[in-house]
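Self-study notes.
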Amino acid sequence: MSWRDILNVQNVEKGFFVSSNSYGIPDINADEFEVKELIPYRVDSNRNGTAHFFLDDYRFERCWKNADSQIEELKKYDGVLSPDFSMYTNYPEAFQIWQVYRNRWCAAYWQSKGIKVIPTISWSNESSYKYCFLGVPKGSTVAIGTVGILNNNIAKTLFMQGFKEMLKQLEPKRILSYGNRLTELDGYTNIQWFEPFMNKFKKKGR
């Protein structure tokens, strides 16, 4: 692989976006649009909704590695969430920062191509709070995922701690939540819940 190929894989040749933070994590615009349904990216043939990336990372890694190849597919949706690159507590901090960078870079790049994007926000533990909310406008709409934390007390505790920090730093006017409902969030009136795709699939007896 040539040095040019390596730079292309990391999207260096596509350029960098404006950033107001020391990490260089891109600042994205506040897109607002109606979200009727959250659809797993390229899993459901239906495109009448907003694409989400609450999936295994390998299923959407191409959106980063081959960014231009996915643009026309992304334009078929009403809008998209930014890709949910995994943030795990056992990941080195440098890698977690990289995951946040890729999330925001994809969002900024897609917006530059005329695609409406709502940022997906994720975190690991308290140490990630200094960078995991960067690049997102205050008072805008954000998306979060609760898949896999319902029956894990440690994960639930970390989620709730990060959720409260997100409210403090971003003051979102609307929160799109994909996954199982948490009773801990019942008192928040600005949350719009979306049931996991597989739950709907099972209910239909498929």
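Second protein, same conventions, sequence then structure:
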Amino acid sequence: MGSVFRFHTDVDTDQIIPSQYLLFATIDEMKVHTFESLDREFASKVQPGDFVVAAENFGCGSSREQAPAVLKALGVKAVLAKSFARIFYRNAINIGLPVIVCKDLYDHVENGDSMELSLTEGVARANGQEFVCTKLPAYMQGILDQGGLIASLNREEEG
């Protein structure tokens, strides 16, 4: 169970982590600035296991991998949106941040609502309702369980 942080349509990577903070050496230094143009207190309010819920085209803009990385570093359990920009989606999977297409959820939740997500069932539960989401194939769930595509490939090389 986690809390919902709800964002609008077309949230771009510069809104997730503004470009001036890409000069910092580590994700830990960057993460305190996550979403600061949309919600100045996001980084101090979000807790491990919370969810980002958005409308359409989440993660559009540049291809910076730091955008999903700061969300993961803050403990965001998953990002659920009506749709994602392809490069953000791919970067998130690469680093092990679940990104789930859930078309109806956004219209039925508000900031601070409690929510739970079953990746294996492809179901989000909030406000007494169940929302069908994209169910991840077993191989993709395995990649996420190993910490992302990069970690998964590194394990294969070691084995």
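Instructor comment on the second fold: The longest strand covers residues 2-7.
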